[in-house]
Design brief:
The chain is about 50% helix and about 15% strand. It is α/β, with parallel strands linked by helices. It has an eight-stranded mixed sheet with strand order 3-2-1-4-7-6-8-5, sandwiched between helices. The longest helix is centred in the last third of the chain and has 28 residues, at about 245-270.
């Protein structure tokens, strides 16, 4: 693609695709509308069951993208395949159901070029598609901020979203690609490895992406997500040389994820009218969360369990 002298940095845009035939055109249009023009695009069909519809949606773009197919391996494997067939100094990731705003690359590349020591630059995203959180930013939802570090990322006080993240290829060469053994939280694992190796992150509160939430999103299954995070935490302890602070942060993060699973288990038990199990699970969750509201819920399950079920069901229907 033609570019000006100010756009000498080639950006490789990697888009994994799985069951996204209805979204892929909007994602690609958002890349092609970027004000920064020196980029290459690869779409990786990750063994998608909607391949005929996906390829029909891609047909108008085939002269402007590289397209590769593979057996299903998960988003990390698909992104790795995209990385391997591109050559940009910077690698930008976009999930096929998300959308970039027009100045996403211009802002990110300018920040990366201003400080060549940065490993990762990233922005904020606004939620679309989910009526309960639509319009909110991910920083608001995750209560994310402060400075990046291994401990901050592992505790999820500092979060970043893959679709509005640009990574320097040299750091992917240094710490390795996405772990192909991880089908969820593979990005969380990569950020932790980069941070542990000394890579610097720089984020901005500026919204440069629209992040789509829907029932098919990998983040929609909270139980599976908690399991995936626990798997990453186990891997950290097994493969990284952690100092005392880092190890304590991993242990605290594990307790929070286990509490999350207890809370989900409690909600499931409540819906099944197993009030004793619901009370036990929510009490175990609250031993870590330490919420006055959950303490009241636990007491309510002991005294008026049917009322608690009615209140929960009423809230879930809103």
């Amino acid at each position: 693609m033609a570019h000006t002298p100010a756009e000498d940095t080639l950006v490789s845009v990697v888009i994994p695709a799985y069951n996204v035939a209805g979204f892929i055109a909007q994602a690609l249009d958002s890349v092609l509308a970027q004000t920064y023009r020196n980029f290459e695009i690869v779409v990786v069909n990750d063994g998608s069951p909607d391949t005929p519809a996906l390829e029909a949606a891609l047909a108008p773009y085939r002269d402007r993208i590289a397209y590769i197919t593979q057996e299903n391996g998960g988003p990390g494997v698909a992104r790795n395949a995209g990385i391997e067939c591109t050559s940009g100094e910077l690698v930008a990731f976009l999930d096929a159901d998300d959308v970039w705003l027009p100045d996403n690359l211009a802002v990110q590349v300018a920040r990366a070029n201003a400080d060549p020591g940065l490993a990762v630059v990233h922005a904020d995203a606004r939620v679309i598609g989910d009526p309960t959180t639509s319009g909110m930013t991910l920083r608001q939802l995750n209560r994310s901020g402060g400075r990046a570090s291994f401990a901050a990322i592992v505790s999820e006080s500092y979060t970043l979203t893959t679709s509005c993240t640009v990574v320097r290829r040299a750091w992917l060469d240094r710490v390795g690609r996405f772990d192909p053994a991880l089908r969820r939280s593979e990005d969380f694992d990569l950020w932790l490895r980069i941070a542990h190796a000394g890579g610097r992150f720089e984020g901005t509160t500026r919204v440069l992406t629209h992040y789509r939430r829907h029932a098919q999103s990998t983040s929609a299954d909270l139980w599976a997500m908690a399991d995936a995070v626990l798997r990453v935490l186990d891997k950290c302890e097994r493969t990284l040389q952690l100092n005392e602070t880092e190890r304590a942060a991993v242990h605290a993060a594990r307790r929070r994820q286990e509490a999350e699973k207890h809370f989900i288990e409690g909600k499931r038990a409540l819906m099944q009218r197993d009030y004793r199990q619901a009370r036990r699970s929510i009490r175990e969750a609250n031993a870590v969360i330490n919420s006055r509201k959950l303490s009241l819920v636990t007491y309510g399950l002991l005294v008026t369990p049917r009322l608690m079920l009615w209140l929960y069901d009423k809230g879930a229907r809103r």
